[in-house]
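Supplementary Methods, section 5.1.

A reviewer requested that the exact input to the structure prediction be made available. We therefore reproduce it here, unchanged from the version used in the analyses.
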Amino acid sequence: MGLLNALLDLLYPPQCPFCGKPGAKGADGPCPHCQTAPFWLEGRQAVVPGKHFVRCACATWYQAPFREEVLRFKFSNQPHRAKAYGAVLAQTIRTYLPGTFDCITWVPVSPDTLKKRGYDQAQLLAQEAAKVLGKPVLPLLEKTGKNRPQSSLTHGRERFANVAGVYTVPQPAAAAGQRILLIDDILTTGATLNEAARTLRQAGAGQVVAAALCRTPEHGP
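The structure derived from this sequence is encoded token-by-token as follows.
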């Protein structure tokens, strides 16, 4: 098996899931170059306050070269990247959200998107982060409304209006009284996370905090 793996690495060199460059040993974490790259967030830039969630912890800026790798994760049938991304997100959560949640859920894609894509990237991130954090993952939210892709809208007001009412909590008793960590892949204006958090709070959640793998630089401080 060792020889076979060596041959596969020679023919198909492992790629860093953060920059896409070949030559990294394995693909479960950032390569040495990416470990010191400027896209990592820390301090005040890593934490964004919300209206219906207390705060959102973000691991990286949504900028090149990582932006292109995240897009491959979402749209190019590369769900295996969730292992590396979920571990990074878990470390961010440990740093900025300790002791603030009892369970984890995620911002779901629509049934049509799930059928087309074959997986929900936020769900995979939540599941991988939960393995590290040792917390249960609960499917609390469903997306029932149809809306335009948030990436097609440029103004914050449009983004907030676009997601209004698109989520439901099918079993409110599962959310009632819970301190919930809500996970998504990208934070831009916070509209999607705020609407999902509002829906959870309306269903009786005691508190909602959030975490996102990336934060869009245009909306940084």
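DSSP finds nine helices and seven strands in the chain. These observations are discussed further in the main text.
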